[in-house]
Amino acid sequence: MSIIYAPTLSTELLKHCAERVSMYDRENRFCQEDFDELKQAGYLLMAVPQKFGGQGMSLAEVARETRRLAYHAPATALCINMHNYWVGVAADVYRTGDRSTEWILERAGKGEVFAAGHAETGNDVAILYSTTKAEQVEGGYRFDGRKSFGSLAPVWDWLGIHGMDSSDPNNPKIIHAFIHRSTSGYKIKETWDVLGMRATRSDDTILDNVFVPDEYIVRTLPVGFCGADFFVLCIFAWALIGFANVYYAIAQRALDLTIEAAQQKTSVAMMNHPMSHHAEMQHGIAEMILELETIEPHIEKIAEDWSNGVDYGHGWPSKIVSAKYHAVESAWKIVDRALELSGGFGMFKKSELEHLFRDARAGRFHPANSALTHEIVAKTALEINLDEQPRWG
User: Fold this and answer.
1) pLDDT tens track for 250-295
2) 291 to each of 87, 246, 327, how far by Cα in Å?
3) Strands 173-180, 217-222: pairing kind
4) Where do you find CATH 1.20.140.10 in the chain?
5) How confident is the model at residue 4 (pLDDT cuts 50, 70, 90)?
6) What does the pLDDT read at residue 2?
7) What is the mean pLDDT of the chain?
8) What is the CATH number assigned to the segment(s) 115-224?
9) pLDDT tier for residue 349 given thresholds of 50, 70 and 90
């Protein structure tokens, strides 16, 4: 069956996704129906260049569509962002003349799904370091380790992973690779029972002597920031700007729900006038708007600059993590304020604000975390090597 797609998501499709949010969250199950409809609509082809059967959308364009979906179904938008960011990475690398990721575009154009296996317990600098062991063998590498937050676990065809080759202690390497679902040696362990973003079904993936042939080894790089080539920088850009837009959309939705409730809810103390006339309600909504107004220009600017090839040089990591951090932290403040202004109704499971509150909190778990973000931003400004260890005393 050929995949039919349009430049933007239809109102009807978004409505369907919105209608299923509560069910997915309550049952803690994967957003399968959303995924099927979105795939049929071409949502997974947005970043695929037209040459490979896709729409050829830039990071800025994909980010806006991610935001539109997230307004209605944040967990669905977040998990499919995992696929779209791999395709976006491959497309940007391909546009530089580097053909190492061309096969990703070919397969994505045919409908195959990509997911990310980077998160690891004990590794707070995902992608640049790894607790997963990578051992070079004849014809490829073998990987042993455990990956967390494996969104799209029920449906991926390819899982992007990385591991550390420490065979030369003086020159360790990070190996970036992809495993196919038919590969032997991995196991998806059902661990996903969490606070928010439940519909992503981000179970753990255990790698037990998994062999990846050389053709699916996409990068062998030095450990740390010194090994962050354009491929790695693309991962940060596409993943984190996608995250930022998901949480911005959550904040926008929380504000809209708060305004709607304030206009409808009456107060006996105010002679049955709507709560919208209450001074503190007005003050709270103003605070939310003032916070929200700062997010969109920031994330739009960074996404547009990336898409237009603006040269920030070594400043790009700082630009990217700053945009994600700003969006997530501001979204959390907005949703937290919305819950306060709900008058207690937001505590009930049937309230949309209740699951938006949990989803918004999940954003602060996503990389880059607060500590790493502050380190990158400060060292960049101070012109300190990002791999330099902190000194005390």
Assistant:
1) 999 999 999 999 998 876 666 677 888 899 999 999 999 999 999 9
2) 32, 16, 10
3) antiparallel
4) 230-382
5) very low
6) 42
7) 94
8) 2.40.110.10
9) confident
**pLDDT one-digit tens code per residue, 35-87:** 999 999 999 999 999 999 999 999 999 999 999 999 999 999 999 999 999 99
Q: pLDDT tens for residues 150-190?
A: 999 999 999 999 999 999 999 999 999 999 999 999 999 99
Instruction: For residues 339 and 257, give the distance between their C-alpha atoms in angstroms, rounded to a whole number.
Output: 10
Give the span between the Cα atoms of 299 and 78, in whole angstroms: 16
Write the burial class of residue 329 (CB in 10 Å: 0-12 exposed, 13-18 middle, 19+ buried): middle
Angle at 378 between CA 126 and CA 220, to 5 degrees: 30
- In single-letter form, the type of residue at position 383 comes to E
For 110, 250, 265, 392, the CA distances from 95, given in Å and listed in that order, are 19, 32, 53, 44
Q: What is the largest CA-CA distance in the chain?
A: 80
Q: Between β-strands 140-150 and 186-189, what pairing exists: parallel, antiparallel or unpaired?
A: unpaired
Domain with CATH 2.40.110.10 in the chain: 115-224
- Listed residue (37, 40, 36, 89) closest to 62, CA to CA: 89
Under DSSP, the state recorded for 177 is E
Domain with CATH 1.10.540.10 in the chain: 11-111
Using DSSP, state whether 9 is helix, strand or coil: coil
Contact 374, 380 (CB under 8 A): no
Fold of domain 11-111: Butyryl-Coa Dehydrogenase, subunit A; domain 1 (1.10.540)
**CATH architecture group of domain 230-382:** Up-down Bundle (1.20)
Q: Which residues, listed in sequence order, are joined to residue 180 by a DSSP beta bridge?
A: 158
Q: Which of 129-133, 141-145, 278-282 has the lowest mean pLDDT?
A: 278-282
Q: Judge contact between 250 and 196, C-beta under 8 A.
A: no
Distance, CA of 105 to CA of 88 (rounded, Å):
9
